[in-house]
Amino acid sequence: MENVQGKKFTSVIAIDLRPLMGVKTGVGEYTEQLARALVACNRRPVMFFSNGSRKDVFQNPILSVPHIHTKIPNKLFDLTARYFQRPHIDVLIRNASGREVAAFLSPHITSAPVSRRCRKVLIVHDCSFRYRHFFSLKKQYWHWSMAIARTLRTADHIIAVSESTRRQILQWLPLEPARVSVVAPGIDASFLSPPSASVMEKVRRAYRLPPRFILFLGTREPRKNLITLLDAFTAVAQEREIDLVIAGQAGWRNYSLNRAIARHPFRSRIHQIGYVAAADKNALYRLSSCFLYPSLYEGFGFPPLEALACGVPTVVSSTTSLPETVHTCALMVDPYNSGDIAAATLFALHDQRHQERVKAEGPAYARQFQWEKTAEKVADCIEQVIREYA
Hints:
Residues 26-190 form the Glycosyltransferase subfamily 4-like N-terminal domain. Residues 210-362 form the Glycosyl transferase family domain. GO terms for molecular function: glycosyltransferase activity. Keywords: Transferase. By secondary structure, the protein is of the alpha/beta class. The chain folds into two domains: 11-186 and 370-388, 3-Layer(aba) Sandwich (Rossmann fold); 189-366, Rossmann fold. Helices cover 42% and strands 16% of the residues. The chain is built from 15 helices and 13 strands. The protein has a seven-stranded parallel β-sheet, with helices on both faces. Helix 1 packs across helix 15 (371-388). The two termini are 19 Å apart.
């Protein structure tokens, strides 16, 4: 096979599709978009890999790309990978396809043993696993079972999605700085174009959205800081006739949020709409008056960037990666100070000059985050690692 420059390759890059199993998460969205872009940039032939008792639960992003699936149960695979560093994924692929795997790209920290003949490139989205209070005991056990420190140490190269994440990796583990690169993800280009009026109205009806609302979109879990958000909304609702829409799938300890909403003085103006389909997010952002994201920890932060791409005034925490992600386009607040969050939200709702600035600058800034650029930089990292170990 040849790439666009005419170079012949007998080996392939294998991409782990396991993050695409089941309901698509942020990491799943990242995996799909990056896989598509890597195939399109045509540096080297690509194959997909997955394992589990059923192949049909995987959402193959490009049906024309060979997909090698093994029926090893996930729990057994993770167990043998942790304790025996077997099976070697590149060997499984070679046995099934006859193709040599030059590099295995893991878009998430998962069990992915490979032989010495294959290079492994690992993408790290955040280091939240180091903060156990953010997770349930079940999730903590999963983090332990992945042997994350060893997984990072044994990777030939690590790609962090932000400088904040890279800095945390290097503070935690004694790795050579040159082994950890930063490649920012892209965003779906559809966010840069407004949907039709009929689509907007369809989304408004489907989710029963109020006429004017502040929006939060993300997994409903403690690290998203939704209890403090509710405290801030109390002050906002006293000043403005506006509702709060909380969108996203339920996460760990969601019952705490439900209790806080039940006791809230403006509970009739708070709406939980649950999981939002990817196709509806563009309209949802644009129907909102302000996007609020006071998260305590993020490795990158897709939702604020997507809101800015839609030209929506955005308020984010001044912590971890979020200042890096939104640059100067969003208002930044102390996530532990509900008064600070409320004041910034009221300003975003009231100040017309700020709204016009975000409407112009937000999409222009977000346009820099293109999956084609991300794929080219990831491909550069992969090829560099292959050359270094040739």
